[in-house]
Amino acid sequence: MPTVAPLDLDGHVVAAAFLGDVPFFATAIGAIHRLDHGHKVTEANDGLLACVYDETSDTLVTGGEDGKVFRVAADGTATLLSEVPRKWISVVAAGPQGAVAFAEGRTTRVRLADGTLKEFPEQRTVEGIAFAPKGLRIAVARYNGVSMHWVATAGQPVDLEWKGAHTAVTFSPDGRFVVTSMQENALHGWKLDSKPGADARHMRMTGYPAKVKSLSWSAKGKWLASSGAPAAIVWPFASKDGPMGKAPLELGTRGDVMVTSVACHPAEDVVAIGYSDGMVLAARFADSREVLLRRPGKGAISSMAWNRNGRQLAFASDAGDCGVVDISA
């Protein structure tokens, strides 16, 4: 039976992550908590809006209401990467070669490892950013689609258009697909064709009763798990056309209790599923088998993350009740 080590914090927790084997919890006020031979705290942003894990450097990247972007290391050290005075940094992304992207308003900025800043203006407000898995390229989610920019070259972006508000964006691990979550309770995807002049093919993934706020790719990139329904909706991406014409898996169905967070296991075809009542389950893709990891708590699960060997899961909620599940116990 999995064991749970609880951690109660004040207020909304934006992100849970592991740096090495140390669990981190980033709160909306800007305090970064870690469980490293005791409970320790780093003060970063004055009002935290976004926090992502940077796999290449094993750090966190944060953005906040103070217009600052920080990199937080495993020992809790916070290094200021950039600052845009009097602006809110509501979107951040971590990329290869030490690159970090962040946005305020209609401007995306990419900071390279040497401190060089590149700016990419948009016609509409930037809602999400993702780095491509290969090459220094970003996808920027905005109203009516996605803009694709090569960071090193100043040129016209490749525009992937689809009417509506696109609120987040992700690349498939093999770089063949770009998927966005939308304001209208749906996902939209494009198959990126490598042939010159070829148009990207569209994929509509609809039927969600709520907005999709959490996405997670499986270890080998064959599945994309999503929140926004009373089950984790898991779309198949193994074939050359992705989920077009295929039904998704529905894992961990719980009546009218909504899934609010998903996190795929780093090695197995298993997904951790967090719910609006604070419960956490793990479900296996092959046979839908479920294991209870955590009983309901005070608030909706806002973030989850596995450690590298997949034996521990950190979870956080919008009410501040967090913890670490040890599934090897």
Overall, the morphology is globular
Task: Enumerate how many helices there are, as a single number.
Answer: 0
Task: Tell me how many strands there are.
Answer: 30
Structural class: mainly beta
Order of helices and strands: EEEEEEEEEEEEEEEEEEEEEEEEEEEEEE
Report the C-alpha radius of gyration, rounded. Answer: 19 Å
Straight-line distance between termini: 7 Å
- Please state roughly what percent of the residues sit in beta strands, choosing from under 5%, 5-15%, 15-25%, 25-35%, 35-45% or over 45%: over 45%
Main beta sheet strand tally, sense and closure: 6 strands, antiparallel
Main β-sheet, spatial strand arrangement? 14-15-16-17-18-19
Q: Summarize model confidence as the mean pLDDT.
A: 95
Helix content: under 10%
Structure report:
This protein is an all-beta fold and 329 residues long. It has no helices and 30 strands. The protein has strands at residues 3-8, 13-19, 22-27, 31-35, 39-43, 48-54, 59-64, 68-72, 78-83, 91-94, 100-104, 107-111, 117-121, 128-131, 137-150, 158-171, 177-182, 187-191, 201-205, 215-217, 223-226, 232-236, 249-251, 259-264, 270-275, 280-284, 290-294, 301-306, 312-317, 321-326. The strands form 7 sheets. A 6-stranded antiparallel beta sheet has the order 14-15-16-17-18-19, with no helix packed on it. Strands 1-30-29-28 form a 4-stranded antiparallel beta sheet, with no helix packed on it. Strands 2-3-4-5 form a 4-stranded antiparallel beta sheet, with no helix packed on it. A hairpin with a 5-residue loop joins strand 10 (91-94) and strand 11 (100-104). The model has no long low-confidence stretch (mean pLDDT 95). This is WD-40 repeat-containing protein. Pfam families: ANAPC4_WD40, WD40. InterPro entries: Apc4-like_WD40_dom, Quinoprotein_ADH-like_sf, WD40/YVTN_repeat-like_dom_sf, WD40_rpt. It is found in: Cell projection, Cilium.
